[in-house]
Amino acid sequence: MNGDFTSIKSVLDQWARNAKKYFFRYRKGFYELFIAADSPQIMIRNFEQMPLVKHKREAQIIQTENLFLRVAIYYNELNPQLFLLLTDSFYKKNVLDIMLYDSRVNAEYYFLSLKTISHEVKDSSTMVNGTRFSSDTWALSKPGGSKNIVHFKNSTELFYTIYFTQAWLDDCIEKCDERTHRFFQAFQASDSTFFMLPRQVSVELPDYAAFRQRMTETKAPSTEALYESTLLLFQEFSRNIPDDMLLKNNLTLSNESRIKLLKAENYLSKYYTLEFPGIDTIANHAGMSPTALKTGFQQLFGCTVFQYHRKQKMQIAKSILQNQKETIIKDLAHQLGYDNAAKFAAAFKAETGLLPSEVNDN
Q: pTM here?
C-alpha cells in the first residue's frame, strides 16, 4: 500500500513539474517563468514545445515573442562535454526565470554565463541623451544548482553561456593559472551551488563580439572557431575572479538577498546621470533595510552603493568625452550633478586615472 502511494505521488509530482513549464505566476513584482534545466538539450526541447515558438533546426535558432519578452536563442553542441548558447532578448516585463530539475535525471552540466545588459540614457533635454553603456554579470552554477535568474523590464540582454561537464572543466583549468585553480577548489568545496560576479564595462570586448558573430552566422560556424571563442570567454572569467575575501562573502549570500540586491542595482541604474538617490530610498525600493543593503551590496559588488553609482556615472562621462569631442567639460559636469568642473575632474580621475580633458583631447 505504501509503495502504491509512493508511486502515485511520484507520478503526480512529475505531472506538476511538466505542467509548470507551460504556466507562469506573478509574485513580488516579477512574472515567474518555469524552465526545465536538467541539461541544455532538455532546455532546448522544452523551449520548442512552448506556444508561439519558431525553431529553425538546421540553423539551430529558436525565436519567440510573447507578453513577457522577445528572444532569439542560438545553440551549438560542440561535443558531448560542451554545449553553447547565445541568447539575445528584450524584456517587456520584470521576469524571474525559475529553473526546474527532475530528481530522476542526473544533472551533469555546469554552466558559466556572461550577461551583458545594454542601457541607453533617455533625457532629451541634456547632452547625455542617447548615451549607451553596458553592465556585465558573470554567473557560474554547479550541475543542478541554478535556481533563479532575474530580468528587468525594458532591458536588452545578451547571454553568452557555456555548458560543460566535470571532465571538460578539469581539462580546462589545467591550462589556467593558480588563481583559477584556487577559485574552483573553493567553489566546489563550498555549500553554495551558484556564484555571481557583477562586472561593469563601457564597451563590448572583442572576444565577446567574436563569440556572438560565430554563433549567429547564417552558415554553420567552424567548430574550431567556436571552441576558440569559448576558451577566450572562460579565460576572461578567470581574469575577473575576485580575491578570496570577496569570493567568501559572495558565496554566503542567499538567493533571496541576491535578487533584492539586483533589484536595488537596477533601480540605481536610473540615477547614473543624476544625483545619488540615497541609501534609504534604494533600500525601500528593494524591500530591505538600509543596513542589509549596505552590507549585501558590498558583498556582491565589492564596493559601496555610492562607489558603484560613481563608477557607472564616470563610465557614462567617459563614453561622452570619447564620442562627442565638442563636449564642454564644465557643461558635462553640471549635467552629471557636479557643482563645478574641478569636483567632476577629481571624481573622474579617481575612477579612470585620467583627467576629462585627456580623454576629450585624444
A: 0.82
